[in-house]
Amino acid sequence: MDIQNHYYGHSAALARHAGLDSVRHIDGLLQHGWTVRSPVTVHFADFPRLPRGARRLVWSHASRAWDPAQDTAETTAIGAPFLYLSAMTAERTIDPLGAAVAFPVHDTRVVKIGAEDSVLARELAERDGPSVVCLHPEDLDRPERLEVWREHGHRVVSAGERRDPLFLGRILRLVRGARRVVSNQLSTAVVYAAAEGTPTAVYGEGVEVGALGSEVARRTRELWPEFHAEDAGIDIRRALALDELGHPSLRDPRELSGLLGWDHRRARPALSYWFGTPVRKAGAVLGILERAEGAQDAGSGASPLVFLRHPLSHLPGRLPRVPQGEELLAEPLEPSL
């Protein structure tokens, strides 16, 4: 019912698994990234209540991040879209990149990260040599950030914009082909890589994330020490990553379609997507409407004017298409700047 359902090619991957030719409106909310606390308070905080029958669809009920039984709202675990795409492309071979791939923690239009690109760029060059650096689309708006990585000998690529249906396939291609995957904080891409059996590394002591400060870095080190220990084996990390991504909760195509509300056409999710949800989110941003209890918001305290600087990015748009053939493992994009 919200634009986040269609971030990063997630709904496109689920539609492909369900055997659909086109993406449909989801009757509920879909988790769009790995979280260090409950998705209810991180991703769904603007929606403390949902219409009857709509679901909060999360990746896993086995994550160390939270206890579903103690949560403030009921959730349904369906597994991460990444795992569905990985299974659909398991027999496809790709050429090894012969280099490490780094996914630096990224800024957003609302949340700013307290980290210097030059520090990670230098350490990456020293420890892994010239590497491939995948920048988030919102970091690509700043040419000076690209130059920092290139000055240290790294190749900069992108997985595309948030609503690009090929985004997830590009990430999968990168983590599957990487010699190892590196970040300056435990993050979604690192967990994806571990699930693929790719070696991973987390450099440094973590970064400060908006209003949450160093809490995210502290919590990741406390709850997931295996990803920070030098001697943790690949098999240990892979088993942990599969739990975090909800491998035991993966659904067959028919069951998944029912949980997403795709087993038959409904008007409500479409009306909510185009009209109800944008109004609800605007009310939450302006402080007129309440948010979920215990909301974990890195953008907390930001002026509503921050959202208005990029008004179109928060509005609904056409649903993404379903990738076909070679697009399932698309090549990463090369920034022109």
Layout of SSEs?
Blueprint: H1 10-17, E1 28-30, H2 39-42, E2 55-58, E3 76-77, H3 81-88, E4 101-102, E5 113-114, H4 117-128, E6 132-135, H5 143-151, E7 155-158, H6 167-177, E8 181-183, H7 188-195, E9 200-202, E10 208-209, H8 215-223, H9 234-244, H10 253-260, H11 267-285, H12 304-308
Q: What's a concise summary of this model?
A:
This protein is of the alpha/beta class and 337 residues long. The protein has twelve helices and ten strands. It is globular.
Strand content: 5-15%
The strand line-up of the biggest sheet is 7-6-4-8-9
Oligomer: single chain
Alpha-beta content class: alpha/beta
Total strands: the figure is 10
Order of helices and strands: HEHEEHEEHEHEHEHEEHHHHH
**Terminal Cα span:** 35 Å
**Whole-number mean pLDDT:** 88
- Please state the CA-atom Rg, rounded to the nearest Å: 19 Å
Helix content: 25-40%
| Count of helical regions | 12
Low-pLDDT segments, ≥5 res:
none
Largest sheet: 5 strands, parallel
List its traits.
12 helices; 10 strands; alpha/beta; 9% strand; 5-stranded parallel beta sheet
Describe the structure.
The protein is α/β, with parallel strands linked by helices and 337 residues long. The protein contains twelve helices and ten strands. The protein has helices at residues 10-17, 39-42, 81-88, 117-128, 143-151, 167-177, 188-195, 215-223, 234-244, 253-260, 267-285, 304-308, and strands spanning 28-30, 55-58, 76-77, 101-102, 113-114, 132-135, 155-158, 181-183, 200-202, 208-209. The chain has a five-stranded parallel beta sheet, sandwiched between helices. The chain has a three-stranded parallel beta sheet with strand order 1-2-3, with no helix packed on it. Helix 1 (10-17) crosses helix 3 (81-88) and helix 7 (188-195) crosses helix 9 (234-244). The mean pLDDT is 88.
